[in-house]
Amino acid sequence: MLNTPNLNRIKFLIILSWAACLTTGISPLQADEIIDIEDGDVSGLNSAIERANQSGERTFIRLVGDGAYSYQLPENSPPKITGTIILDGKGAVFSGDGSTALGPLLEIGEGGSLELSNVVIRDFESDQPGTSEQGLIIVSDGASLSLESVRISSVDTHSSGKSSGAVVLNYGNIQLSKVRASAISVVTESQYAVVFMNNLGEATLENVFIIDGRIDAPELPAQSVAAYIHNGPFATLNIRSSTFIRETSPSGTTSKLLAIERTVERPGVFREIAMGGTMILDLGCTFSENVVSTGFNLISTTEPCPAKSNTDITGFYSNAARFENAPQGGPFVVLPPNSPALDRITGDTYTCPNRDAMGGLRPKDGTGDGISQCDIGAFETSGNTPLFSGGENGLFYSRGRDGHYVTIENTRPNEYLIFWNTFDQSGNQGWVLGIGSRSGNTILADGYYQTEGILTPGAGADVNTSEMVDWGSIRIELESCLNGRFIYDSLLSEFGSGAFTLDRLAYIEGLGCLD
Question: Which residue positions does the secretion signal occupy (predicted)?
Answer without folding.
Answer: 1-31
